[in-house]
Every structure is written in structure tokens, then in C-alpha cells.
Design goal:
This protein is of the alpha+beta class. It has 4 helices and 11 strands; from the N terminus they run ααββαβαββββββββ.
């Protein structure tokens, strides 16, 4: 039996990646929990049990531009997963696109905590970016934050040389910014939880 051709195909990294993504997507079909969403909840339960669901655009507007966002609805995250953090700096958005597969699927609900600083390498974050993202169709994207530092002898300390916003999916290219261009990207929040669900109004 001639197995050489099949072995060559299976050793191809791209083939492995495609098989892995197919299996991940296939076995997650039908695993969507049914979660209730509310137009209004008790004030005392806002941000303690329930978190607001925003569009990506509204989340960026609220935390970066002091806009009053439209809240799509309120979701009881403690009913989904008691480990999900809550607080007035936490919010939910729906992921769009496949750039973060297999970690985040298109349509997953992602819980973010707004932070202005204190980011760590490999944090998954929501950013506002200068150019349109092909997945979201807007100037916002969910990516891994990767920074490169160098020692600056004049400053006597390390400084950021470049920042990459990295996709998980190898079919996508990273966004790369030099130290001079880092100000063009604005962090909105750090991923602190996620879930897959079919939302139903209550």
C-alpha cells in the first residue's frame, strides 16, 4: 500500500491547521446555551450580577470618547459562570469574524474589563485602531497584545520598540506598530471571560 502521498499531506502545517479548525467548529455546533437577556434590571443588580451588552462601536465610544452608549440588553453573567468578574468597568460585546479562532469563535460573547494601563504580553484585548478591520467592518478589533522592548542607554531603562496585535488564526496577518505609531491604537478592555449562547429576550 502506498501511503507516502497521504503522509506528505498530513505533515503539511496548513493542512493540520485547517483540520483542527474544522473539528473545533464542528464539535461546537449545537452547544449554544440559551441565555435570557433583559431590557432593564434592578439598579442594585447592575454590574453586580448583570452586565451590559454593547455593540463594538458603542463600547469604544463609551470608554474612549465619553459617549453615552446604547445598551442592547442586560445579561446575568453569574447565572452563566460565577467566575466571570463584574463591576462598572466590565461589559460584554459579541465577537465578529474568525481572526481569533480557535480561542474565540464568530458570535461568541466576550466579557471585557476596561483598563487604561497595566497590560501584559499576550493579553487578549479589544482595541480601537486607525484603519478598518476586515472582520468587524469598523475601527475596532479583538487581538492578542504583544509588545517588544529594547534597552535604551540614553534613558537608562527599557522602552517599547514595537507593538503587534496578533490574531490566533494563521490565515490573518497581525497589525504592527512602531514605537512612534503606538499612540494610534487605543485599548478599550482586557478579556476576562467569554461564553457561547443563544440570547432570548425576557
Amino acid at each position: 500500500v502506498n501511503t507516502g502521498t497521504d503522509t506528505d499531506k498530513l505533515n503539511d502545517t496548513d493542512t493540520f491547521d485547517k483540520i483542527r479548525r474544522f473539528i473545533h467548529e464542528y464539535y461546537n455546533l449545537g452547544m449554544h446555551a440559551s441565555v435570557r437577556m433583559y431590557t432593564e434590571v434592578e439598579q442594585s443588580e447592575k454590574y453586580s450580577r448583570f452586565l451590559p451588552l454593547y455593540s463594538l462601536h458603542a463600547a469604544c465610544g463609551k470608554f474612549l470618547h465619553n459617549e453615552t452608549p446604547e445598551i442592547i440588553g442586560w445579561i446575568d453573567v453569574k447565572d452563566i459562570d460565577t467566575s466571570i468578574p463584574v463591576g462598572e468597568d466590565c461589559f460584554i460585546v459579541k465577537a465578529v469574524g474568525n481572526s481569533m479562532l480557535p480561542a474565540i469563535q464568530d458570535g461568541d460573547y466576550c466579557v471585557f474589563r476596561h483598563k487604561n494601563s497595566g497590560f501584559h504580553n499576550a493579553d487578549t484585548m479589544l482595541f480601537e485602531i486607525p484603519d478598518e478591520d476586515p472582520d468587524t467592518g469598523g475601527r475596532y478589533t479583538i487581538k492578542e497584545y504583544i509588545r517588544t522592548k529594547v534597552y535604551d542607554e540614553e534613558m537608562g531603562r527599557e522602552r517599547i520598540e514595537s507593538i503587534k496585535l496578533m490574531p490566533r488564526n494563521n490565515d490573518y496577518d497581525p497589525y504592527e506598530y512602531s514605537a512612534d505609531d503606538c499612540g494610534e491604537i487605543q485599548p478599550v478592555g482586557t478579556l476576562v471571560g467569554q461564553f457561547r449562547a443563544t440570547l432570548k429576550w425576557s
